[in-house]
Specification:
This protein is an all-alpha fold. 84% of the residues lie in helices and 3% in strands. Helix 1 packs antiparallel against helix 2, helix 3 packs antiparallel against helix 4 and helix 4 packs antiparallel against helix 11.
């Protein structure tokens, strides 16, 4: 057990340092290419920090561990909005890019609604998975076209790093958050299993929180550095990536059965994200008090899961 705790700590260290390096590299890429930081947050950063969810859920889907595959994604998406965005706002209240509010948040909520409809018959089938992958591909193409159309000359005083150094920072950052995320998840699962927690509960809590730690650390670091586009873009982009790509890949590999309680958790997920959308739409920013409310809601939801 001592070794497990040590690996858990090492995982946290890798997540923190890796996310820091990752944000620096991604921000530099945005400046080099004249691409808005929010686009980088919605693509490179969100996909990189969602790598742990992808690894866990796709592997679980292939092995037929349906509860972990689905619970991990639903739990991660709820954690991303309530805790990742919430804690980031508590530490450093940040403005929300109007493009995210008008375009990406509605797309995210739409994909969540589509996913819930797919779950109603009790199974996320291979056909459902293919549909989700097509939606994801269309979204990425749309983002790329938007980035090309909206190229801008950076007005920041900070000079971007050389291209090779920027790429190296991104690669090192991705490697660190993936390795760190896996260490945290594996160690946490061992500790949780020792206390007799169910597979669904582990998926919704320990695994979901563990695989979302890269998003949490990356968004906090980005918010503190004034990269609010990356901070909120990372959260929304990760949620889209988790459902459209990761669930799509998982269910395409092996149809996923949906347990009754999973529907409740899915509605909590979309409700939490709808609340975040309302906050961002109303004030174009996420305030400290709104962040505190998000964190409190997540704590209450976790308490419900523990007694369910």
């Amino acid at each position: 057990m001592l070794l497990t705790v040590i690996l858990l700590i090492i995982g946290f260290v890798l997540l923190v340092k890796g996310s820091d390096v990752f944000v620096d590299g991604s921000s530099s890429v945005a400046r080099l290419l004249g691409i808005p930081a929010v686009i980088v947050g919605l693509t490179i950063v969100s996909m990189g920090t969602s790598a742990p969810e992808a690894a866990v859920s796709i592997t679980a889907g292939i092995k037929g561990s349906n509860e972990i595959a689905l619970a991990n994604l639903v739990g991660s998406n709820t954690f991303n909005l309530l805790m990742v965005a919430g804690i980031s706002a508590v530490i450093t209240p940040f403005a929300v890019d109007k493009i995210v509010v008008k375009r990406d948040f509605p797309i995210c909520l739409g994909i969540m609604a589509v996913t819930i409809v797919m779950c109603i018959d009790g199974t996320v089938s291979r056909v459902d998975g293919i549909i989700l992958l097509v939606i994801f591909a269309a979204y990425i193409v749309y983002l790329i076209r938007s980035a090309i159309k909206n190229r801008e000359v950076s007005e920041e005083d900070e000079e971007p790093m050389p291209p090779m150094k920027s790429a190296l920072f991104i690669l090192i950052g991705i490697a660190a958050v993936i390795i760190g995320g896996q260490l945290v998840v594996n160690s946490a699962k061992i500790i949780a299993a020792a206390f007799g927690m169910s597979e669904t509960l582990i998926g919704l809590t320990i695994v979901a929180i563990g695989t979302s730690l890269p998003e949490l650390v990356t968004s906090i670091v980005a918010a503190r550095k004034g990269q609010s586009g990356i901070a909120i873009g990372n959260v929304v982009g990760s949620n889209i990536f988790n459902l459209a790509f990761v669930l799509g890949m998982s269910s395409t590999a092996n149809a996923i059965a949906v347990v009754p309680d999973a529907m409740i958790d899915a509605f909590v997920m979309i409700g939490a994200n709808a609340l975040g959308f309302i906050f961002c739409f109303a004030g174009r920013k996420l305030t400290r008090w709104e962040g505190i409310l998000c964190v409190m809601i997540y704590i209450a939801y976790t308490a419900y899961l523990l007694v369910r």
